[in-house]
Amino acid sequence: MGLESVWFVLIGIVWSAYFLLEGFDFGVGMLLPVLPRRGSERERSMMFESIGPVWDGNEVWLVIAGGATFAAFPAWYATMFSGFYIALLLILVLLIVRVVSFEWREKRDGPRWRTTWLWADTAGSVGAPFLWGIALANLVHGVPLNSSHGFSGDFFDLFSAYTVLAGLAVVAVFAQHGATYLTLRTVGEFRERAATAARRLSAVAAVLGIAIAAWTVIVAHDRNSRGVLPTAIPAALTAAVLILAIVFNGLRRSGWAFAMTGLGAIGFVATIFTGLYPRVLVSHPNFTNSLTITNAAPGHYALKVITIVAAIFVPLIVIYQSWTYYVFRKRLGGEQVSTPVAIAGGAPDGPVPR
Amino acid sequence: MHAGTAAPAALTGGFQQALWVLGAIALLAVPAIFALVPAATSSPMRLPRPRSASRSPRWPAQADPDVSNYNYMPRVELMYWSMRVMAILGVVMFGIAAVGAWLYRNRRLEKARWFGWIAVVAIAFPYIAAIFGWILTEMGRQPWIVQNLLKTSQAVSPSVSTATVATSLGVFVALYVTLGVVDFLLMRRYARLDPPQIGEGGGLGETAGVLASAPAPSYGGT
To answer: What interface predicted TM-score (ipTM) does this complex get?
Structure first.
């Protein structure tokens, strides 16, 4: 297995880490308007605080995925980022607005202000994973490429029944992942509601997730001339973990359920990447124009350099992120929760900006 | 240290102040050397003139493998002053921070209104320095995107139309202007807050909380 294959697998792993980690904070964002009791600012703040210390660290994996693609497969990066230009612009706008929602929501007390930024977070949390699902599904579904591997389609070529279903499946899997995460990070009555949501969402996620896994096997066979078996293995495992997520969420085994919802998110990436190999971006209708791990890779020297760089820095990132999760390991929902919000927005009996 | 009882404390205090001043000078010296030495060796009067600027065209359409055939000199005056605005503002910010630390150390920070005004003006300095830094790198490297290998005009993506690039630029400008305005209004709101009264509601800890959560320009995330 050459360095090209190693980097194909590594980029798949980085996307998996992104889906595993940012998946649940997107999921929490999706549930912001529906899970808290009506008018309960305390529960909304609790949901924000459950992901507050970790969401931007989770987003680092997206940056790594982009950077690794640029370094290991520059032609893939060039074609994908130029071809998916408008879609990526939309994702960026959604992510920027979501970043701001975390920063600004607590800066003022007015209900309109808080509602605005809550919905800004939810819009980003639904929109970005939907578009990522579409983008990743397009890699294997194929987009029009010319003989120099340049994108020759337009924005609407990215939308088909398969890719849109993939986007919906990612949203559903992340929603159950987020709900399950909340059952691990909260206590009391709120946790009960999160558990109910997780139970209901895991059924939806299983239906959509298994459908897209099966469809990916067919698409990889038809569009990428992949045999059925290699793609069917991760697809079957994805189906299994999504069913186990229903079981564990039903049994109220939060830890196991969270492991299964996380594996379900990873399973989507694994199925796509298995169906993709050895190509990185399938060309349709002219299959011969497809980008492969060999024609998209730079020279051996560049691959060697980034392998050394990654070997040093990825473990560092894993260590500091693990440290963050360790520091913020305590559950939320006790009496102490409301104070940081009150400080940020001005204490109730102190000067409050209106 | 050895003789009287009151003198050592006073001596130590004076000694510490001297250390602060010396430390500040040492901190200033490092960037100052970088900022001032090039200025001394190549004053604005003796800017390097582009070689044979009249004969060779600036920025030829095709990259020439023989770089010496063309004049790839950037706009030297702009580069020269961008570098100096950035570096000198950096030194000035070091200095302001050192003075602030010294005032704080001597418990005079609260009463030094003159320093408050300097600090308010200095809010703009990092932004100005960063902008000129970007002008230096982005204009200074033209027409190359990779020096002597790939020109910016050759690196343009053929599948992204000018209209699409204009759209994305428009979207980002509109988004960042909006966010910038809201950010400014939030900062003004917090700046106008009265400091919390001691022993009423919250003490210094609350002030720290407000300051810590004051909106900062964030380029994080993706």
So the answer is: 0.81
